[in-house]
Amino acid sequence: MSYRLRKDEVQYELRVRGLQTEGDVYELRKRLQNALNNKVAIVQEAVNKLDPQAEVDVCEEKFSDLNEVVDSFDAGVKNNEYTRIEARILHLTGRLERVDTSKDGEGTLETRKSKLLQRTKAILEQLEGKIQQPNLESGKTDAQLSITGSEQKVDPAENLNGLNGELGIVKPNENVSLVTKPSTMTTVRDNNYRKSVPVYKWDLKFDGSQHLSVSAFLERVEELRVARGISEQELLDSAVDLFSGPALIWHRSNRQRIKTWGQLRTELKTVFQKPDYDDLLLKEILNRTQGDQENIDLYLAAMDGLYSRLSEKMSEEKQLAQILKNLNNYLQDKLCMFNISSLEELRNLARRAELGRIRSSTQHPPPKPSIVMEPDLAYSANWRRSPGIHHVSTVDSSN
Q1: Lower CB density within 10 Å: C or N end of the chain?
Q2: What is the DSSP string of 126-195?
Q3: Segment among 108-117, 274-283, 375-384 with least mean pLDDT
Q4: Which residues contact 306 (CB under 8 A, 6 or more apart)?
């Protein structure tokens, strides 16, 4: 999709389609996505205006960056990061193919271009080689539509057909041509590939009100980011979908100033958390006692969540000491004789104590002797000494 590319790469794709390149990265990617949805073709006149020398220089820099990225890629599956790298490599391939070297009298520019195309193809093969491939009848992977169409070889309308306007990938063949048809590519998926879920489908909004704290919001965002295959850069670019109300107003005002997701996290805490948040949270932790009917696992989970939201991590020893003080009366009574040295030990002992409470609550009195088959072995609460036994007070032995 369009958010796979960096800002300058998106601007290039817009420029060669004769579209405006002004605006922040979010606006640019949205504009490119709309262009792809509407099957906007490459404009050869726009391509001809590009400086061939400058284009090759830029492509060499991008190759150097991508070469390092591919070397460090070690996921082993076609995850979201793989797709992003692949899209950038194919952007580079198409960009190089469009460089016009016909006016290069000495041929040096053509030589640089050809060598760079070969090396670009090589790192794409290197990237593919890091994936455990399933047995496929076709050598194609999860390829989708082309962002690298040229006026001579590629029909953009054909490449975009039926793919919902998503900016994806096409694999170059041995001649580094980009003519692969998407109809043969969209039916097979690697079992290890996890399709990303756009942020706007997460059904998660932060408005700055008290019903959802900043910490809880950011924690949930991180959970969904990992589970739904979104990179931090993509999250930053789609952050507008996460806000409403005052938080959305704040985000609009600061969107161009904030460059990374980490910076956005920090800014959110600065704006929407109280200055003495850690002190107040620590007091909340000290007052968080275990409910009478709250089981130990849920209580420890809640406490772990509270501790995780402190700026400075508290040692397990201190956590354990505080939690032991805040256990409910039943566990305080049952565990006071044990020397507990870890949270895991506390969990196991408390589980056993809670099991005892459950069993005792279901205890019933023994059956009466009158209703059992073996009354001599039944319990009798009214047992008395047999009346047939007589006591002798004195014995006369004088005779």
Answers
A1: C
A2: HHHHTS-----SSS--S----S---TTT--HHHHHTTTTT--------TT------GGGTSS---TT---
A3: 375-384
A4: 281, 284, 285, 288
Q: Which two tokens stand for residue 13?
A: 């794709």
In a domain, 88, yes or no: yes
Tally of CB atoms within 10 A around 375: 12
Give the C-alpha separation, 146 to 178, whole Å: 8
User: Does 247 lie in the same domain as 115?
Assistant: no
Single-letter residue type at 258: I
pLDDT 10s digits, 285-335: 999 999 988 999 999 999 999 999 998 889 999 999 999 999 999 999 989
Domain, as residue range, for 149: 2-184
The verdict on 40 and 162 lying in the same domain is yes
CA distance 155 to 137: 26
For 383, the 3-state DSSP assignment is coil
- Indicate whether 108 belongs to any domain: yes
For the record, the structure tokens of 271 come out as: 């704006």
Number of domains in the chain: 3
Residue 175 CB neighbours (<10 A): 9
CB neighbour list of residue 11: distance below 8 Å, 6 or more residues apart = 21, 28
